[in-house]
Design brief:
Blueprint: H1 2-15, H2 26-35, H3 40-52, H4 58-68, H5 72-76, H6 78-92, E1 100-107, E2 110-114, E3 119-122, H7 138-142, E4 149-151, H8 162-166, E5 171-173, H9 181-187, E6 191-200, E7 203-213, E8 216-220, H10 228-231, E9 236-241, H11 243-251, E10 258-263, E11 280-282, E12 289-293
Parallel strand pairs: 3-4, 4-5, 8-9, 9-10, 10-11
Antiparallel strand pairs: 1-2, 1-12, 2-3, 6-7, 7-8
Bound molecules: zinc ion.
Length: 294
């Protein structure tokens, strides 16, 4: 969250509040760099580094550039360069910083989770606006990373779109192949997904998931109103649940052992009233980013 805030500040300062496009190639990086009137050679150098060293630690990337700054003019630009580098690293590679799991709320129960290496989409892509739930921008689909993992709780259109999914490469898991998650878990270090069969009034097959990643536990509830499976898991770091899970838990007097809750699957116009405790985040704002350091 701090990152997103900082990014916003840098963005408005340097680019006069204009939104920055996502940068994934050299030409785009060059374009952005030249639009802020840096000397040509520096433009090329920085954008090359940004592209080629995307996995470099930010700190070493900055030092690397600082060492290359020879002329006075360049030195003068140093501060700006750092700000720009941060901006571009963060916006183009999303969340390439280390030791953080970043979770972006896309809409409905749609989440994008990444540690900078593995990209996981949950209940996304869905059909934008299905059942009067949240819509999302077309760019959301375009920005999906190659070879991502897609995980679905069930196949209702506010969670899943067969048509959109078909166009994407990557590994796809849902209520049709939960047993295949084992192969996935074996292939990625420090990462596993447990599928938990849960009930949903309108579909026969619904799964909730426990994601264990870098020692953190992230629970994905989906649509189920059944609190029991969730209540059996200890020491959850973030539980993503619809609001009815919280009300059911209260009514049935069931305790959920989670440090934080992300309440998703709200209608766009849904109003949240009353006092909200600090550990509960109502996900009304699309593109909101939750950071879990590990
Ligand atoms: Zn739903």
């Amino acid at each position: 969250m701090a990152n997103a805030f900082c990014l916003q500040a840098i963005r408005s300062k340097i680019l006069n509040s204009k939104p920055t496009p996502f940068v994934t190639n050299q030409a785009d990086a060059d374009k952005i760099m030249s639009s802020i009137l840096l000397p040509n050679r520096l433009v090329t150098m920085i954008s090359t580094i940004v592209i080629s060293k995307s996995k470099m630690h930010l700190h070493s990337a900055i030092n690397y550039i600082a060492n290359k700054l020879k002329t006075k003019r360049m030195k003068k630009d140093y501060k700006r360069v750092i700000a720009i580098l941060v901006l571009i690293l963060v916006s183009s590679f999303g969340f390439s910083q280390t030791n953080e799991i970043n979770i972006k709320f896309i809409g409905n129960a749609g989440l994008y989770l990444t540690d900078g290496k593995t990209n996981l989409y949950v209940d996304f892509p869905y059909k934008s606006g299905a059942h009067k739930y949240m819509e999302y921008e077309r760019s959301e689909l375009d920005s999906i990373k190659d070879n991502s993992i897609f995980l679905f709780t069930h196949r209702h259109s506010d969670h899943y779109s067969k048509k959109l999914l078909k166009k994407l490469n990557g590994k796809k898991f849902g209520n049709w192949n939960p047993e295949e998650l084992k192969n996935l878990n074996d292939s990625i270090p420090d990462f596993s997904i447990d599928a938990i069969r849960t009930s949903h009034t309108f579909t026969f097959k619904h799964y909730s998931y426990l994601i264990s990643w870098h020692g953190k536990k992230i629970y994905i509830n989906g649509d189920t109103g059944d609190v029991e499976p969730l209540s059996k898991i200890q020491d959850i770091d973030w539980a993503f649940v619809p609001y009815w899970i919280l009300s059911n838990a209260k009514e049935e007097n069931i305790k959920i052992d989670a440090k934080s809750f992300g309440v998703y699957h709200l209608y766009p116009q849904q109003v949240v009233t009353g006092e909200i405790p600090d550990h509960i985040l109502f996900l009304k704002e699309q593109n909101k980013i939750i950071t879990i350091p590990y």
